[in-house]
Amino acid sequence: KIVFKKNVQSLSLLPLVNGNELDVIEQNEIWDKKIIGHADVNIGNLIQRLNINDWVNEGRKYIQKDNHTCPFCQKETVTEEFRKQLELYFNETFTANIQTVQSLGEKYVAVSTELISLLESISERERQNPESKLNKDLYDATLKTLNGTVAGNKEYIHNKQKEPSRSINLVSTMELQEKLKCLITAANQEISKHNRLVENLHHERQKLIMQVWKFVTVEYQDEIKSYLEEEKKLMAGVNGLEKKVARLREDYAALNGEISRLTQNVTSVQPSIDEINRILRLYGFTNFQIVPASGYENQYQIQRENGTLAETTLSEGEITFITFLYFMQLAKGSIDKERIMEDRVVVIDDPVGSLDGNVLFIVSSLIKEMIKQIKNNAGNIKQLIVLTHNIYFHKEVSFVDGRTSKNKSTYYWILRKTDNVTSVKGYEMENPIVSSYELLWKELQERDNNSGLTIQNTMRRIIENYFKILGKFGDDELIHTFTNPQEQEICRSLICRVNDGSHCLPDDLYVEAPCDTIAKYFEVFRKIFEKTGHIAHYNMMMEVK
């Protein structure tokens, strides 16, 4: 705390206290002595027998020189003989003792006041000193006791001065003074020690550092030994790993060289020609194929079955398809051999503008295969961005993992341009493009938020599409799926209401009813699917868990 403290300074020694003079006064025999007059005088025996020595001495002060009136009885009894007897009784010895008591009492008050004032000034100074070495609590408690003792002795001395014939014993303050001296001496020793440290601060700081390290090395000898042994083992392991890393780096350099050598063949156009021709034959394009270009390295040509080059005879759709197939191969490889292993992001912008339906399906299948590889983290294509205006192509290419509302790792956006300003709206994993049939069911799901005027037409179109057009169900056939006559009437009412409501607007009489009747008809609508065994389709379209 001292040698490492900033701006450390020397401290002043506390003043030494000497209370011997006070002790001499307290030990004086005069306090125990009964001060009385001379007993051989005639009135002496009477005064001492009545024990009125102090009373007579005090009254003697009131005897007037030219007055014979006694201050005690107030009669003319004071004669010259009586005056002489009093002077003989209170002789010079008595007077001297009285003066001794008075002077010692005054001296005791002065010496004790000076001593206590000095001791209190020390207490006050050290109380404000944050670096104090004094035991302030013990010092203040001892000083308080000394103060009380001195006050009691002053009271005894005051009583002795009033009644000299009284014998008193003053309480010695020597032990308390010695205790305070010891505390001051101990504080001064610490202050001296502190000052010696300050005078030799640099030397003491280095000395302390060496002592601390010596203590640490001795105290933690076993831990240090264990640490050094563990360090030795770890360093052996580190050296072994470094050698292993060096060997692996050599192997890596060799493999990298082999990759560079093999990519000479990978960048050849022949693998791409073979793959493109395989896809063309797979999907029935047999009237032309891809062949290497003669006289040109790593280039190809499009050739007809009869061997002629198809330079100007390809349709726009065929050109687009060939270009797309080449792009798919280029996305997996590279023209530059140094970039074959690079990770990449592929962007496909509306590849089906001039394609017929069959080719559109082929392109969609190839893109879906690429999507599956990306999701399986196969190959070096890490992300695919597909842009299209074609709703049918969007439906085909987005149908990857089955009929699910959300596709993992697939995100959807719609770009709209209004007044030459393009806005982008994100739908996250929710596909915003749905069929007309799905939109009809969406209206039923949100029926509470929509007008009841169109609900009949929505139900009719769903029943017509699913049961009549696809399922070949008639009205009577649907009605007779209910065994309960009351339910049959409700179903017939629903079908009639649906056909009626889908071709006209209800008048005021009917407008009042939908809020109460829509729920009833909707329940019958659900039961049609249940009775016909198609409740699973209903639950799927209504997203019933």
Number of strands: 6
Q: What best-fitting shape do the alpha-carbon axes yield?
A: elongated
Estimated radius of gyration: 61 Å
The CATH architecture of the domain at 267-400 would be: 3-Layer(aba) Sandwich
How many DSSP helices?
Answer: 20
Uncertain runs: 500-513
Mean pLDDT: 77
Question: How would you classify the quaternary structure?
Answer: single chain
Strand count, sense and barrel status of the largest sheet are: 2 strands, antiparallel
How far apart are the termini?
73 Å
Q: Structural class of the secondary elements?
A: mainly alpha
Order of helices and strands: HHHHHHHHHHEEHEHEHEEHHHHHHH
CATH superfamily of the domain at 267-400: P-loop containing nucleotide triphosphate hydrolases
Structure description:
This protein is mainly alpha-helical and 545 residues long. Among the domains are: 20-37 and 91-199, no CATH class; 267-400, P-loop containing nucleotide triphosphate hydrolases (Rossmann fold, 3-Layer(aba) Sandwich), CATH 3.40.50.300; 436-541, no CATH class. The chain has helices at residues 20-26, 42-50, 53-59, 80-89, 92-127, 136-162, 174-199, 201-219, 221-266, 270-282, 316-332, 357-375, 391-398, 436-445, 455-470, 475-479, 485-503, 508-511, 514-531, 535-541, and strands at residues 288-292, 300-304, 344-349, 381-387, 412-418, 421-428. Strand 5 and strand 6 (421-428) form a beta hairpin. The longest helix is centred in the middle third of the chain and has 46 residues, at 221-266.
